[in-house]
Design a protein that fits this description.
Elements (H helix, E strand, L loop, with lengths): L9 E7 L6 H11 L5 E7 L6 H8 L4 E4 L6 H9 L6 E5 L3 E2 L4 H11 L3 E9 L15 H4 L9 H7 L9 E3 L6 E5 H7 L11 H11 L3 E12 L9 H18 L4
Parallel strand pairs: 1-2, 1-4, 2-3, 6-9
Antiparallel strand pairs: 4-8, 5-9, 6-8, 7-9
Amino acid sequence: MAKAYPKTEITAGIVTYNNRETILRAVETCLQEAEGLSFRLLVFDNASTDGTPILVEKAFPEVEVIRSKRNLGFGRGHNAIISRVRSKYHFVVNPDIEAADEVFRRLADCLEEHPEAGLVTPRILNPDGSEQAIPKYGPSIRFSILEKFPGFHWLRKKYTRQDEVFTEPTPIEFCTGCFFGARTKELYRLKGFSRNYFMYCEDSDLSQRVLKSGKTILFEPRVSVYHKWNRDNTKNLKGIMQFMKSLMIYFKTWGIKI
């Protein structure tokens, strides 16, 4: 039986930039999976040029759309959302996510049952239902760079712990930014995402700050969401350079791990 949450107990935020192809499904499924809860969804648009904010406003007038005059990036966009919410639990959601499995209620319940947890993330699935290879360790030279070269792809399995079977909430070292939940007061305390990153590694940085604070990060394998995971940005030179810039900032902040 679902818990009865008081007013605006759960909030969620989506940051968009030219996501008209996926955003409506993301919003629709979030609202569906939060039905019956005290829930508020906010969308922060990073100056899209494809009509994304108008699309959301027309289809879902109950959703608050915040329009930025310029692209602030992933982390700063979410920080703008976090600064506006007053809830017990807050969720960070990608615009290419399809929510499922009563994910908001069940992950909020998980946080309630595990006061030691700072962040919680569900199983992330591809649209066909197969599991995505999401990292569960923090960035390192071998996991973030070496595993991309021919002959070293086996490192990806270790990086994502694909050979392990998870049946209950399990501590991990990295929480993906595509979908996670947290106590809102913890996000306030941590001051949200670091402003040092425009895109990439901001979730790794947040994960490290959570762990440094003495909290754990939980992977809840019994709850799932679907993720399109379009990584076109890392297949061109501009995207690769942005990723490497963010990775260097991360290593400078937290030290280089082999």
